[in-house]
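RECORD TYPE: inverse folding
INPUT: structure tokens
STRUCTURE:
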């Protein structure tokens, strides 16, 4: 029985007292996306497993260890989405959005699912805001995407992060880098974890991203990818750096940034905080120029980023920028006795129709208990309705914050206008 009333490990409830903070973050993300010309896209919670095997990569931790995969009633392999980019690419291919014109600029706010050890701000069901841009291949697009992330973090008051960037090259120069990595790791092959041993031949760069301490110590002296960039990738990375400098966006180059997803190429970046736990990345992304082609579409460059809503809220808390979550109705209508409850209910409905948030007693409380409840829910104003008030058509509105009273009629329009003016003061 206890299991029924306990949420699964790695999941969280967002309680009514917390939802205002979530809405603030989500609405800020939507507004910043609008300013940069991105439009919302929505896609299914689950996809065919093959989408993630091809799009995310079968050497990644996500595919090897973390996906929630099951067979449906017809024996088809289905996976709860572990990330959003592959689903966006599938959608734009399926609906021929590329033919409608480039660039394609979309954003999403979704739940993702990964079976991993729950950590601070990193859950098995986590919520992500992500953006995707398809079409541009030049460094200015990278700069714009990074600037959107920087703008979002500043809008949320997150000032405890630093931007780190890197380039992991294209398939051609990365092949040279991978050979250098294999030469480096071969002398320590037996000390690698089993997962990294399997990566050695297929994708040795993924060893650099391993979270095992032993692999991390070995990787500390590994070759640096920036030393192996081809001229085109090197020029592209120079363009990103110059573009960020031109916008005044501060950054540092971290040649150890790689990606846990196989579809990334060239630019990768992270906004990192030191105060939200071991996994300090608040927002991260990069370029993935081959992904559309890999999933069956026409070759189309792409780039974007993702950020966890939970991690954004943790970073806001660290920066002291959480919004005031104390809120309540505009008005609470207290009833003196049973005879006026119908009139109170009618006035409540009229005022709601005029855009005023109103509550009235549903629990048959005493008048004293009703007033105590009005204070508890932070009602801005209260009125008391009894036989005298309904007979005279006049009531006294009490300002619960100032302690003052104002006489007005029982006319809903007059009450609504008074409350609207009070809001503006």
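DESIGNED SEQUENCE:
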């Amino acid at each position: 029985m206890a299991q029924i009333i306990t949420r699964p490990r790695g999941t969280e409830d967002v309680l009514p007292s917390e939802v205002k903070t979530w809405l603030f973050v989500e609405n800020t993300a939507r507004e910043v996306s609008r300013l940069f010309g991105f439009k919302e896209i929505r896609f299914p919670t689950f996809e065919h497993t093959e989408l993630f095997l091809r799009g995310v990569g079968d050497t990644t931790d996500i595919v090897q260890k973390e996906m929630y995969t099951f067979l449906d009633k017809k024996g088809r392999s289905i996976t709860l989405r572990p990330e959003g980019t592959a689903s966006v690419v599938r959608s734009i291919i399926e609906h021929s959005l590329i033919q409608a014109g480039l660039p394609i600029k979309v954003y999403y706010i979704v739940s993702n699912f990964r079976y991993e050890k729950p950590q601070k701000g990193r859950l098995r069901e986590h919520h992500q805001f992500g953006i995707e841009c398809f079409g541009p291949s030049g460094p200015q697009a990278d700069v714009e995407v990074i600037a959107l992330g920087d703008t979002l973090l500043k809008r949320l008051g997150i000032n405890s992060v630093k931007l780190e960037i890197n380039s992991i090259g294209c398939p051609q120069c990365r092949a040279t880098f991978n050979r250098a990595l294999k030469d480096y790791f071969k002398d320590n092959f037996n000390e690698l974890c089993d997962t990294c041993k399997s990566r050695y031949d297929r994708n040795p760069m993924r060893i650099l991203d391993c979270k095992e301490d032993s692999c991390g110590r070995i990787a500390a002296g590994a070759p640096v990818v920036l030393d192996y960039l081809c001229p085109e990738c090197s020029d592209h990375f120079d363009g990103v750096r110059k573009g960020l400098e031109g916008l005044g966006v501060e950054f540092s180059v971290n040649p150890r940034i790689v990606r846990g997803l196989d579809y990334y190429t060239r630019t990768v970046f992270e906004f990192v905080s030191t105060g939200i736990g071991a996994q300090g990345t608040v927002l991260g992304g990069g370029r993935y120029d081959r992904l559309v082609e890999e999933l069956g579409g026409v070759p189309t460059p792409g780039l974007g980023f993702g950020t966890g809503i939970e991690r954004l809220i943790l970073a806001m808390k660290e920066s002291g920028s959480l919004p005031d979550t104390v809120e309540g109705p505009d008005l609470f209508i207290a009833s003196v006795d049973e005879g006026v409850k119908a009139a109170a209910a009618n006035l409540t409905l009229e005022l709601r129709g005029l855009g005023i948030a109103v509550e009235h007693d549903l629990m048959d409380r005493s008048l004293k208990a009703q007033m105590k409840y009005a204070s508890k829910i932070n009602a801005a104003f209260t009125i008391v309705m009894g036989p005298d008030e309904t007979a005279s058509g006049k009531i006294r509105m009490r300002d619960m914050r100032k302690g003052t009273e104002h006489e007005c009629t029982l006319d809903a329009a007059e009450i609504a206008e008074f409350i609207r003016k009070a809001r503006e003061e």
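NOTES: The mean pLDDT is 92.
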